[in-house]
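Page 37, continued from 36.
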């Protein structure tokens, strides 16, 4: 049970306006992914991920676990938009939108997740740390930043026509296009 207050050092108390979690170690990404799934199921709100790099994800989550969690997430039919890093090949999944950011605006070691109605998470991959913030103000600020970047990012297009099997699965490999 929470009283809805927080202590401010030696100065007193204030109304609690956000909740912050710091996750460290090997299970940090699994905990984040579980929070993403639970929040998606509860809120049905769009999920936004910027500086997405599948290589960093796979350093912290096995391909089998990633596939399992993606299957669960896709069953929620929540809209998902990904801002990807340069030269990152993606196995696109039906129902997801992807765009690519140029090198000069990406940090390859940090991924931002905007989800639910009030959550933002920052994956600090080189530190194996994730910070989850439950704050409407932080969510709004990161949502606005994501949407600005989205409008200015390059579209990702299939590298080649998908095979019949890939098309049936809704999975194709994407690469950057010159238009936006």
């Amino acid at each position: 049970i929470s009283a809805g207050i927080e202590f401010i050092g030696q100065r007193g108390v204030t109304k609690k306006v956000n909740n912050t979690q710091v996750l460290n170690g090997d299970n940090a990404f699994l905990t984040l992914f579980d929070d993403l799934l639970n929040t998606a199921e509860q809120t049905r709100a769009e999920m936004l991920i910027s500086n997405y790099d599948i290589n960093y994800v796979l350093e912290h989550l096995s391909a089998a676990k990633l596939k399992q969690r993606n299957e669960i997430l896709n069953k929620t039919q929540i809209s998902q938009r990904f801002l990807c890093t340069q030269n990152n090949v993606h196995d696109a999944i039906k129902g997801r939108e992807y765009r690519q950011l140029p090198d000069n605006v990406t940090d390859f070691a940090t991924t931002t997740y905007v989800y639910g109605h009030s959550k933002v998470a920052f994956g600090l991959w080189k530190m194996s740390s994730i910070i989850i913030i439950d704050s409407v103000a932080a969510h709004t600020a990161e949502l606005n930043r994501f949407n600005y970047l989205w409008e200015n990012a390059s579209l990702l297009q299939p590298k080649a026509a998908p095979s019949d099997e890939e098309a049936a699965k809704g999975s194709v490999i994407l690469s950057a296009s010159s238009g936006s």
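The mean pLDDT is 78. Flag for discussion at group meeting. The helical segments are 28-43, 54-60, 63-75, 136-152, 164-169.
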